[in-house]
């Protein structure tokens, strides 16, 4: 498993170890115990095992040793950051070249029969207005993001290019097959403590008062991290799993996420209303460089709709309620000192 100390990957490691499997877990620096202690603890709890390897997404051959003897490969490593300086350095190269380097290593190992790729709904749509272009106004696994670029929605662009690169490489061989898990915005507690995921930054903004005047009128699908991990397990080991699977519970707005927290966290300055779209369009780029006027025009106030039925029917997925997931995540961030009143 690549990026094994990541938000989703850590829960996936836990699930695989509980199933009694041996996980070859790659991280950037295996000797940095502050980043891997929770993985070591999972291996000690058993019944499965965790074996750590150091690997670099941008270094060809870096995954060769970790893949030896493995039958299934999970590629979860990919940065999820929105506030970036250089889209190629920070997002595109790690996502695309990292995927290509991993799959070249897979091609050199005859034991691998299935690769499960952690993609994203970002590879299916670029902006909320894209939903209207889908059949019935609802995104499905047949859709591809065609509107993102290095300058507009670069994270979405990176996930699109990386998944397309994977599907191109699977066609060139007949040793292994590929299943792609495409989750929406992932929420829930972490196993490794602090996280750099953009999801955590969103909850931090909800809790520290930055959104007290109002939340941007933005909606997207959301899903618990443990449900995403389970989707990966089923994508890996159900023989008939194939293709792409959109994974989310329901569409939810940023204000809706705040409403999930309001009953329990009464002392925090959670937003109580949505800002008008024109206000965010005018002021957003000044306050947050990730909110461009193009982003505001194409996303704010526009419903997000997608179909998750394929994963429910073929993988047997079911989903936790978002309220409990959000509460657990926010409470953990308070306990870690990431959010304060």
Any overview of this molecule?
By secondary structure, the chain is an alpha/beta fold. It contains twelve helices and nine strands. α1 crosses α7, α8 crosses α12 and α9 packs antiparallel against α10. The longest helix has 21 residues.
The helical percent reads 40-55%
CATH topology: Rossmann fold
H/E series, N to C? Answer: HEHEHEHEHEEHEHEEHHHHH
Uncertain segments: none
Structural class by secondary-structure content: alpha/beta
CA-based shape: globular
The named CATH superfamily? NAD(P)-binding Rossmann-like Domain
Determine and state the CATH class. Alpha Beta
Main sheet makeup:
4 strands, parallel
Biggest β-sheet: strands ordered side by side in the sheet = 3-4-5-8
Tally of domains: 1
Q: What's the CATH architecture name?
A: 3-Layer(aba) Sandwich
Strand content: 5-15%
What is Rg?
A: 19 Å
Q: What's the end-to-end separation, in Å?
A: 37 Å
Mean pLDDT: 92
- What's the total helix number? 12
Number of strands: 9
């Amino acid at each position: 498993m690549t990026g094994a100390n990541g938000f989703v990957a850590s829960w996936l490691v836990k699930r695989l170890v509980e199933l009694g499997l041996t996980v070859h877990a790659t991280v950037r620096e295996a000797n940095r115990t502050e980043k891997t202690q929770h993985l070591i603890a999972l291996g000690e709890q058993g019944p499965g095992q965790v074996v750590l390897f150091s690997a670099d997404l941008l270094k060809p051959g870096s995954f060769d040793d970790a893949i030896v003897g493995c039958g299934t490969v999970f590629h979860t490593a990919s940065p999820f950051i929105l506030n970036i300086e250089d889209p190629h350095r920070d997002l595109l190269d790690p996502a695309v070249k990292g995927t290509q380097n991993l799959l070249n290593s897979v091609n050199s190992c005859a034991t691998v029969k299935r690769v499960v790729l952690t993609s994203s709904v970002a590879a299916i749509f670029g902006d909320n207005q894209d939903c209207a272009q889908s059949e019935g106004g609802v995104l499905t696994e047949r859709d591809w993001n065609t509107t993102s670029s290095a300058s507009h929605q670069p994270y979405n662009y990176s996930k699109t290019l990386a998944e397309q690169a994977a599907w191109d490489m699977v066609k060139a061989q007949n040793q292994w097959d590929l299943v792609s898990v495409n989750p929406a915005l992932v929420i829930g507690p972490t196993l490794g403590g602090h996280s750099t995921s953009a999801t955590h930054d969103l909850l931090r903004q909800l809790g520290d008062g930055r959104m007290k005047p109002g939340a941007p009128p933005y909606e997207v699908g959301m899903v618990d991290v443990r449900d995403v991990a389970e989707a990966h397990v089923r994508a890996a080991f159900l023989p008939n799993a194939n293709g792409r699977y959109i994974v989310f519970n329901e569409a939810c707005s940023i204000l809706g996420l705040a409403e999930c927290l309001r009953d329990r966290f009464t002392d925090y300055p959670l937003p109580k209303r949505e800002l008008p779209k024109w206000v965010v369009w005018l002021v957003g780029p000044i306050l947050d460089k990730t909110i461009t006027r193009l982003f505001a025009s194409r996303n704010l106030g526009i419903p997000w709709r997608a179909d998750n039925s394929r994963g429910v029917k073929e993988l047997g997925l079911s989903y936790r309620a978002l309220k409990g997931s959000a509460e657990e995540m926010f409470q953990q961030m308070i306990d870690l000192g990431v959010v304060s009143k």
